[in-house]
From TrEMBL, chain C:
Keywords: Cell membrane, Membrane, Transmembrane, Transmembrane helix, Transport. Pfam families: BPD_transp_1 (PF00528). InterPro entries: ABC_transporter_permease, MetI-like, MetI-like_sf. This is Oligogalacturonide transport system permease protein. Belongs to the binding-protein-dependent transport system permease family. The lineage of its organism: Bacteria, Pseudomonadati, Pseudomonadota, Alphaproteobacteria, Hyphomicrobiales. The chain crosses the membrane at residues 12-35, 70-91, 103-124, 152-175, 196-218, 258-279.
Length: 371, 301, 293
């Protein structure tokens, strides 16, 4: 168990290519922290700097209060699970699990006991005498997990571990990993986890807190709930949530949002939350926050496509030249009638307004950005 | 971020010191590696460099020193060597080599392509055993078949001709090339051939118009390797060619060491340079194909 | 895949003809000939096992030739492979000029089998040749390379090792195809450079090592050009490798039957060693397969 701190961490390649721009992050002891972002946002690079697999250009990483910049990976109390498992192909599962302990010269009995314990936790006992090439994807990933677990590290590092698995397996492994974390916490060992993924669903379902990154910068660090309900900027708003939040450009005037020829009254609640009145604004509406109405203030749009999802319908509509996506119940959809003109009313309590020039969310409760 | 006016903390100093140390160690490691590589490379290549330089020296100068630059470069070695001590010039011997190589390479390319096509794209009875025979031939030491082959060629009346050198290769006798082409062809998708089949092409048309172009790089490798090996081939011509007027350059070179007691080294070395030049030129022009061909074997294990 | 069952055979025809005429029949014929005495003039005379009997009991030359051949193979092959692996390991780095070095080390392999190089070698190791000049420059006495039996074999060995480039290129390709994340996992596991090399890199190279080992061994047993041109098998038959012996018996003395017997003994040795290598490979060769890592 160890807290991890990144202070002003930077990574520069070839003296000119800066990919990590001085990030600060405090990860609490025992926390499950997810680093998420699109490809190229440098989340893996950051993870690898924590692991010691990449040199740190500037800034500092501390693990358990100790500065680890100059320590080799094996001395940092970390263990890592790789995207492609990185199992030693010529060693059986047992050998893969015990390699680190064997190098450290631990006594045979101790090694055997550790291997058995880990195999039991991950349910890989029948696989102990197999070679990696005889394992399925899920089994291999569990062995990789076991190899990390057996070291009893202070910090677990995961580098997109589920990307190589098919969708169904991914879902079950997600659960297995979070269950394991909870189980270890209950037993008292409480390991800290830093988990890198590009999949926001994984991030939202697994993390205690999520660090959203883009192009080597941290966009926001918050709990899943906060990220969903109070995104600090346009990037986070568009990144978290499926289907994506509707980000509509327009202008703010008085208490209204102006979109083409339509005007939408924002309500006093939202107006009170605004910390500024940006001339160029972006209105953020989650698809699930629309209701189909036949009268009252609403946006009028033309239905272009409807995707039937079972008990929900995803509606794609054109409004003043912009595409709006909304999610309504199937019954509600059926009830709207035959016309392809629909009236959508967003819930004013969940609206967000962003300043187009810097992407900031100017409509947060208390007007501040959650850290 | 704030990298201009931030005061240096102890941590920052330690960072820089560590980075500097890492850079030093990298430098040392690089220096050691490069020295080793250059040293070995120099030792390996010096004989060749020396060879070229020596071919432009006079006979006495060759034994005078180890340097490779001739004091007064002369083409005497080349001129005299070209004349040889036979009624023929070296040009004749190069021509003979060419006459051996060209049909052999063409024969190899055609027959090995056909055979590879069969193994990679068709199913037929006994296929596994027959492919096994390719591997067996690949590993078979030629020494066991050489004598009866000689007897066969003698009975056919092919002694002292180029036929024994052409025909086995024209019948896909070089298992190495068959194997190489089969492996390459197996790694190519069959989509285009299937499309051709739907378009109504028969197997031969598919082979010529679709498969052969796809085999391009591998075929080039095959031809290059066969060219080099045939240029260097000594034992084959030694056994089968007895008339001097048919000698390829490999036999001609040997002749030049045989006949003179007091070696006119500068002539011999000059002709040696000439005999390896085509191989070197071909190699450098098509390096990529050679190294790729061999490396592929390493990658697939 | 076409399933017209016999169309494939149409394309195999050249191979099948060649296989039968130039491989299968000669193979069996040479076995037959080894039990005969045949001088190409009259027809072969059946002599039973007498060729083999003479070979194993009374033929001093054969003893010498066999010994020399075995020494040659068992010294060159390991040396050449070890050196190839060593250089490949050094090259397996983010070096500039890696292509230059790879080419430079590979060039001797393409030329090495040629007569030109054999001729060059003969000069290099002659009494006033380059090698002795270099030795003299560092203060040692010149060595009698071709007159002294022990030294002569060394020159041939050196020629073969000089051509390590082809094996090196294969090793280098294999080294570069090893997944980098394996090294990272090993570093997290606490393995230093040496441990990583022996426990991670080397095991993954075993298929390629095996391939090179077998190929080099089979080639080494059939070495002809070098000894023939450089030392003519001497001095005192110290470089009289078996292929030379076979050549002289068959094409100089026209003892086809006896030569065939020697050829078959050589073949048997190669086959046995190859089979041993294959059988032992189960113990030490790890095929990673192409599924994971």
């Amino acid at each position: 168990m160890a807290q991890v701190q990144l202070k002003n961490l930077e990574k520069v390649y070839n003296k000119t290519n800066k990919v990590v721009h001085g990030i600060d992050l405090d990860i609490k002891d025992g926390e499950f922290m997810v680093l998420v972002g699109p490809s190229g946002c440098a989340k893996s690079t950051t993870l690898r700097m924590v692991a010691g697999l990449e040199d740190i250009t500037a800034g500092e990483v501390t693990i358990g209060g100790e500065r680890v910049n100059d320590l080799s990976p094996s001395k940092r109390q970390i263990a890592m699970v790789f995207q492609n498992y990185a199992l030693y192909p010529h060693m059986k599962v047992r050998g893969n699990l015990s390699f680190g302990l064997r190098i450290a010269g631990r006594p045979k009995a101790e090694i055997a006991a550790a291997v058995d314990k880990v195999a039991e936790i991950l349910e890989i006992e029948p696989l102990l005498d197999r070679l990696p090439k005889q394992l399925s994807g899920g089994q291999a990933q569990r062995v990789a997990l076991g190899r990390a677990l057996i070291k009893n590290p202070g910090v677990f590092l995961f580098d997109e571990p589920l990307s190589n698995l098919d969708a169904k397996l991914r879902a079950s492994m997600r659960v297995r990993i979070t269950d394991l974390h909870r189980q270890l916490k209950a037993e008292g060992s409480s390991p800290t986890v830093i988990y890198v993924t590009h999949d926001q669903t994984e991030a939202m379902t697994m993390g205690d807190r999520i660090c959203v990154m883009q192009a080597g910068h941290i966009m926001q660090v918050a709990t899943p709930k906060e990220l969903y309900n109070a995104p600090a900027n346009l990037f986070v708003a568009g990144f978290i949530g499926t289907p994506e939040m509707n980000l509509v450009e327009g202008a703010m005037e008085g208490g209204e949002f102006i979109m083409g020829s339509q005007r939408l009254a924002l309500g006093s609640d939202l107006a009170g939350r605004l910390s500024s009145q940006p001339g160029n604004a972006v209105l953020g509406i989650r698809p699930q926050q629309f209701s189909l109405v036949s009268e009252g203030p609403a946006l009028q749009a033309k239905l272009v496509n409807a995707e039937f999802m079972g008990h929900e319908v995803y509606m794609h509509a054109d409004c003043e030249g912009r595409r709006l996506v909304s999610v309504v119940g199937a019954a509600e959809f059926e009830a709207r009638g035959q016309s392809d003109v629909i009236r959508l009313r967003p819930d004013p309590k969940t609206l967000h307004v962003f300043d187009k020039s810097d992407g900031r969310n100017v409509s947060l409760h208390g007007g501040s950005i959650a850290a | 971020m704030a990298d201009i006016t931030m005061p240096k903390t102890a941590a920052r100093n330690s960072d820089e010191a560590a980075a500097a140390k890492r850079a030093r160690m990298d430098l040392v490691s690089a220096v050691v590696r490069y020295s080793l590589l250059f040293g070995v490379g120099f030792l390996m290549l010096y004989p060749l460099i020396w060879l070229v330089g020596a071919s432009f020296k006079t006979n006495s100068e060759i034994f005078a020193g180890a340097g490779f630059l001739p004091e007064s470069p002369t083409v005497e070695g080349y001129v005299q060597g070209w004349q040889t001590s036979t009624p023929y010039t070296f040009g004749r011997f190069f021509w003979n080599s060419f006459l051996i190589i060209l049909p052999k390479v063409i024969g190899t390319a055609i027959s090995c392509t056909m055979v590879a096509y069969a193994f990679a794209r068709f199913e037929f009875p006994l296929k596994k055993i027959l492919f096994g025979s390719v591997i067996a031939v690949l590993l078979l030491p030629n020494v066991v078949t050489r004598i009866p082959q000689y007897i066969l060629f003698r009975d056919l009346g092919w002694l002292d001709s180029f036929l024994p050198l052409w025909v086995p290769s024209a019948l896909a006798g070089d298992a190495f090339f068959v194997f190489m082409l089969v492996q390459f062809l197996r790694s190519l998708p069959t989509d285009m051939e299937e499309a051709a089949r739907v378009d109504g092409a028969n197997s031969l048309q598919t082979l010529i118009f679709i498969v052969v172009p796809m085999l391009g790089p591998a075929l080039v490798s095959v031809c290059l390797f066969q060219f080099m090996w045939t240029m260097n081939d000594f034992l084959g011509p030694l056994i089968y060619i007895s008339s001097v007027d048919k000698y390829p350059v490999s036999l001609a070179l040997k002749l030049s060491i045989d006949t003179t007691e007091a070696f006119e080294w500068n002539r011999i070395l000059a002709m040696s340079v000439l005999t390896i030049t085509p191989a070197l030129v071909v190699f450098f022009a098509a390096q990529r194909y050679f190294i790729e061909g061999i490396s592929a074997g390493g990658r697939k294990g | 895949m076409r399933s017209q069952r016999f169309l494939g055979y149409a394309y195999l025809t050249p191979y099948l003809i060649g296989l039968v005429i130039f491989t299968a029949i000669p193979f069996l014929t040479s076995l037959y000939l080894s039990f005969t005495s045949y001088d190409l003039m009259s027809s072969p005379q059946w002599t039973g096992l007498s060729n083999y009997e003479r070979l194993f009991t009374r033929d001093r030359t054969f003893d010498k030739s066999l010994t020399v051949t075995l020494i040659y193979v068992f010294s060159t092959v390991p040396l050449k492979l070890a050196f190839a692996l060593f250089i490949a390991a050094i090259l397996n780095y983010k070096l500039k000029f890696i292509n230059f070095f790879r080419t430079a080390f590979y060039v001797p392999s393409i030329l090495g089998g040629s007569i030109a190089i054999a001729v060059l070698w003969r000069y290099l190791f002659s009494a006033e040749g380059l090698v002795n000049m270099a030795i003299g420059a560092v203060g040692f006495a010149p060595v009698d390379w071709f007159g002294d039996p022990t030294n002569a074999l060394f020159t041939i060995t050196l020629l073969r090792c000089w051509q390590f480039g082809s094996a090196m290129v294969i090793f280098l390709a294999a080294l570069q195809s090893i997944d980098k994340s394996l090294y990272e996992a090993a570093s997290i596991d606490g393995a230093g450079k040496v441990t990583t090399f022996f426990f991670v890199t080397l095991p993954l190279l075993t298929p390629v090592i095996f391939f090179n080992l077998v190929m080099q061994m089979v080639q080494a047993f059939q070495e002809f050009n070098g000894p023939y041109i450089i030392t003519q098998g001497g001095p005192l038959k110290s470089t009289y490798l078996l292929p030379l012996y076979i050549y002289e018996e068959a094409f100089k003395k026209f003892n086809m039957g006896y030569a065939s017997a020697i050829a078959w003994v050589l073949f048997a040795i190669i086959m046995i060693l190859t089979i041993v290598a294959f059988w032992s490979s189960k113990k030490w060769v790890y095929y990673a397969g192409d599924k994971r890592s």
